[in-house]
Amino acid sequence: MRVTMVGTGYVGLVSGACFSEFGHSVICVDKDASKIEALRRGEIPIFEPGLDKLVAENVAAGRLSFSTELADSVRGADAVFIAVGTPSRRGDGHADLTYVYAAAEEIALALDNYAVVVTKSTVPVGTGAEVERRIRALRPDLAFDVASNPEFLREGSAIEDFRRPDRVVVGTESDKARAVMRQLYRPLFLLETPFVFTSRETSELIKYAANAFLATKITFINEMADLCEKVGGDVQDVARGIGLDGRIGKKFLHAGPGFGGSCFPKDTLALVRTARDAGSPSRIVESVVAVNDARKIAMADRVIAAAGGDLAGKTVGVLGVTFKPNTDDMRDAPSLDILPRLIAAGATVRAYDPEGMKAAAALIPGVTWVTGAYDTMADADVLVIITEWNQFRALDLSRMKRLMKVPVVVDLRNIYRPDEMAEAGFSYHSIGRAP
Ligand code: UGA
Predict the structure, then answer these.
(1) Which one, out of 67, 71, 407, 434, has a CA that is 20 to 30 A from the CA of 257?
(2) What global pTM score does this model have?
(3) Nearest atom in ligand 1 to 11's CA
(4) Is 207 annotated as a binding residue?
(5) What is the three-class DSSP state of 411?
(6) What architecture is domain 2-198?
């Protein structure tokens, strides 16, 4: 099949490369000429394990190409995916659909045969209907369908998630569109991946409901962690003890500094707005948003408390600033709330992240960026672990102790055990485990 992917952001690029690996002929389109140029040279604009190799292989096989010309790329396509950004609109938290509608209208003007226009971007309920209305207004005689096909891949394991998804969701009432979508995902059918065929509105809602539910799970366990600290429990055992119940499930029960990233914060907020506008407010998701926002801020207070209540003139070492490991993405990362507060409290902050420092330096002024994990610790009064990169999981504890001025560690991801840290001579503070 011939596929056009409009938008070479995270979702567009990964999905485009993976569809080409399925054997389809894929053109990825973006207005950003420098990005397309870079992709043609084999340079990948994001850090995602395995993506460079996947792109190179499929480009070499002639199945994947890049273009800035939307109209030329869309002609003759069986499916045209809209995978452009839907950021939070300034002021009201609604998803900004400007790019989605602009893409839809450009696609409408260029199509010359039946095609399925597929929204892959995360879009609020009703967007597919509006895309259809706009295309029809411009091209009343065109044969086309608009389907919703949300993406559930995670940064850092995006390729694996695309190749082996828990399910594929397709929203359309059209048999013809369903047949095209089935053909596109044929290798997954053969792997017996469950497919959920439903209405467009339901499909759009499934994406928000999934992200909001996962964000709720995380926020719930974070609250249990706070309670554990007060009453003397261990949140990791709580997570295991409840997660082994198949009805609850053990994933997304890691307590931490609060969820960040390009999806959960934006999507929970957009769902809150949609639900309110519909006169059916979601009190649960509203609480999740508020609790998570407050949590990220409160993490800085933990560091200050661990350093004896005062950071003036002290040095804080920071390990990890991205919102999670295996990405260079800083969007809504907890570090964006934590680091400025440490600096405002008078601390000198020495930070290291394997991939995120370039983006972070532009967002958090006043930080001393260093070149390796141990460099953060020189003369430090306290060390904070904010992101659980693998390389931080097995640090040489005696070397750490020698480097630091005061051996205090605040581990916001629970990657060390309290007993090993105590034995190594650290005052160790973690999440949801009594010190
Ligand atoms: C999330 C979803 O997991 C994907 O299914 C979805 O496709 C994607 O959003 C999207 O809508 O595009 P992602 O944002 O890449 O993926 O990252 P996650 O692995 O879900 O992590 C999100 C945040 O939650 C991170 O800050 C992470 O540290 C935090 N988290 C996650 C926890 O604090 N505890 C957990 O147990 C899991």
Answers:
(1) 407
(2) 0.95
(3) 12
(4) yes
(5) strand
(6) 3-Layer(aba) Sandwich (3.40)
